[in-house]
Amino acid sequence: MKRKGEITEKMKSFAYEYLKNGYKQKKAAEFAGYSSPSVAAARLMKNEKVLAIINKVVERADAKNEMEAVDVMIELSERAMFDPIAFFHEDGSPKTLMEMNAATRRLIKGISHSVSKSGDVVTRFDLVDKDKALELVGKHHKLFTDKMELDGGVEINMNYNYGNDEK
């Protein structure tokens, strides 16, 4: 028996569907099985327990996806130093995506397919910009700081006031 103020499975379902469906309240209420989705959604979005579930899931997702500065540098270093041989077997034949390790797959920013004149399907991998990764790593290590040389004389005049002068 449900006690007043208790969170129900339907309410939990609404919270998860709300997040899953891009923060669309009515759609989440429909998926959760409410008969009047608009009314239910408005009521549920004021319910502290439902909001707590939503916030908890969002916080967990943020923590899980948070990248540390060292992770960024590792990723940039992998991009900057990758060897294209990682896309091929020892015999020179291309690897499938499933045969590539995760670090190699992360180098792919796009995939396109076309059919050659002979009827073969050709897969093209667009890779991340290696030069851009090298540039960002170089900037981090301050390899590209601009320095200016100044030549010429400098004249400095200093005046000090030590208080009231005795007359």
Please characterize this protein's 3D structure.
This protein starts with 8 loop residues before the first helix and ends in a 27-residue tail after the last helix. Helix 2 (25-32) crosses helix 3. It is mostly helical and 167 residues long. It has a two-stranded antiparallel ribbon with strand order 1-2. The model has no long low-confidence stretch (mean pLDDT 84). A hairpin with a 5-residue loop joins strand 1 and strand 2. Helices cover 44% and strands 9% of the residues. The chain contains seven helices and two strands, in the order ααααααββα.
Structure keywords:
mainly alpha, about 10% strand, Arc Repressor Mutant, subunit A, 2 strands, 2 domains
